[in-house]
Amino acid sequence: MIIKGQRFDLLNRKQVVDLEVEKPENIPEGTLQIMVIPFESSNKVPKNWTPTDTIAGISITKLAVDRFRIIVDMAAIPCFIHTLTTIIHAEKTGMMRVNIQNVGNIFFRVNNALFDLKEYTNGRAIVAFSIYRRDLTWRFRAIGETYQNGLEDIYQQYDIPVHLAPHQRKNI
Question: TerD domain: which residues (predicted)?
């Protein structure tokens, strides 16, 4: 079991992180989304990064109605990217904003360990975890922070211009 704040080294060149949702049928399809935001060592989104850019080395795949997989190819991540932060949110343009808790439990599996996000699902967005470089090693950090106002609060905290909606996301 992974606990909030826990950190550990990622030794695989390609890291697989599986996301499972307990009750995806409890919210409108496509409302719950996952995104990965890249940050430079200054903790800022890269200056030239735009919503249409892809993040080299990241792929998000839907395995089933309640299961998703994020694959991070560590060797393919550009050297100027220091951190990849994964966010789950329940906002979609033109749709009502809902609380994530409606889907029940959400959890990630990393290296056969489980990070349960159930206690963090009472808002509209969760900063779930980050993968970051420490010297020559990539590390995992369990975050589990809830944001009541969803992406608006996350954009403000991470100093992301509101008009930039990070594109690297997959409808859940």
Answer: 66-158
Query: Are 19 and 101 a contacting pair, CB within 8 Å?
Result: no
pLDDT, one tens digit per residue, over 13-46 is 899 999 888 777 777 776 778 889 999 998 888 8
Prediction pTM value: 0.85
Contacts of 122 (CB under 8 A, 6+ apart): 99, 100, 101, 146, 148
> Band of the pLDDT at 8, cuts 50, 70, 90?
very high
88 C-beta neighbours (distance < 10 Å), count: 25
**Domains of the chain by start residue, with CATH:** 7-171 (2.60.60.30)
Going through 14-163 in order, the beta strands assigned E by DSSP cover 14-21, 33-39, 58-64, 67-73, 83-89, 106-110, 113-116, 125-134, 137-147
Q: Which residue's entry shows tokens 């919503």?
A: 51
Positive or negative: CA dihedral 39, 54, 120, 69: negative
DSSP reduced 3-state for 18 = strand
